[in-house]
Design brief:
Length: 171
């Protein structure tokens, strides 16, 4: 129950859709090892560089296959977004799904209109640093809107919006 006596909606934990990153992580890792073996055999600096780039690509998409950290956690505490942190519900004015499509592929985005700067809206930010910035990001900020890419997530955009809307109505 919340402070108005209403029952809080059920939290929703949304992982990354593992299929969206498997090829990049496992394929990139395998290709990096293969090119590295060629680099060692030929002692060629160009192959070492190519191996390093391929390993970097695999590392960049690593959150997609990680089972430790979910992409989104929607709960009464707030909206936890991977790479951003825990967003205060009181900082969100409106939430909507914007559909963008490339040919027949749907690329849905969750647009969260904020009523204060993002730095003030985040209750506990995710760890900053170079390592985090090298990994894939699902959220970006444009003016007073926080945009969350939903296509690499393991839940439907409608289910995410429905849960976000229920929690927003509670605050």
């Amino acid at each position: 129950m919340n402070d108005q006596g209403q029952v809080s909606p059920q939290p929703l934990v949304v992982p990354f859709d593992q299929r969206s990153g498997e090829m990049m992580v496992y394929g990139g890792g395998f290709a990096a090892l293969f090119v590295l073996s060629i680099a060692i055999a030929r002692a060629a600096p160009a192959y070492y560089a190519a191996s390093f780039v391929l390993a970097g690509i695999a590392f960049h998409f690593l959150p997609f296959v990680s089972k430790k950290t979910p992409a989104l956690v929607i709960s009464s505490a707030g909206l936890k977004i991977s790479g951003v942190g825990l967003l205060d519900w009181r900082a969100v004015k409106r939430a909507e799904i914007i559909n963008k499509s490339v040919r027949t592929i749907r690329n849905a985005e969750l647009h969260l209109t904020l009523n204060r700067p993002l730095a003030e809206a985040v209750l506990s930010p995710d760890a900053e640093g170079l390592i985090r910035h090298l990994k894939v990001q699902i959220a970006r900020r444009e003016k007073d809107v926080l945009i969350v890419k939903l296509e690499p997530l393991g839940s439907s955009p409608e289910a995410i919006l429905e849960t976000v809307t229920r929690f927003l109505s509670q605050h």
